[in-house]
User: Fold this.
Amino acid sequence: MPLPFLRAIMFGVIYLALCVTGTNYTIGRCRDIHFPGLYLLSNTLVTTGTSVRQCIGIYSANVTLDGGGLQIKANNAGNPNLQKGIVVAAPGAIIQNVQVVDFLTGIHIGAEGTGCTVQSVSILARRDSCPSPSLDGIVVEGSDEHIIQDNTITIDYSPALALNATTLIGISISRSHNNTVLNNTIEGLYAPSVAFISPSFNTGASVYGMYFEGLRDSHVIGNRLLSLQGGPGGNSTVPGQAGGSGGPAVGIYLTDQSVANEI
Assistant:
């Protein structure tokens, strides 16, 4: 058999093996991912700079991100409004074995991210200073067929002085079909001050373990919702101004567009 032909066969076998098994990469800093493969954290990732809005962005199909138990952490001293820990904008992503700490949203899966899996992830969303916008663990918007299982999400919002109403959500899914949300643990804590400096911002925080809007044909099974406590209203510091109302604490909230689900 001619040597060039043998080389062509060998190249084809190697190429096929790479296509099947993918390529392994290590990640030692916050970055965007544009190629399929297995990505392993080599160390804790901490965001830097004041303009960063996310740590990891997944923009290729068929990416597996395995944290090996390490952290992806927001440096809120450098950027108090850091938005998202991991952003998924491509189909078939798998995110597992990672801790996502101190972002306003731990993991966000957008309309391009169909068929993703988030498993064995620990998310701690917390804020102990103002400004204090809403905090979310996992958010899915406009994409279908996800598996979200065996994750632990803790929402801890305890500023010394609360300036505005806040919404805390463990798992939020909107406009999405055929999902499995299984065996997750969600804990929400809220410990606000009782004094508010403006009559316009004196409503307690609203806490939702799971918030579903337009969820269809999905299975939500075996999840644990612990210590969900809405924030009480505060006493206005403005003379003659009434105090604020308390916020609700809801385990699972479904809008009327959510149908044909097993919960």
Q: What stands out?
A: Residues 233 and 246 are 4 Å apart (CA to CA).
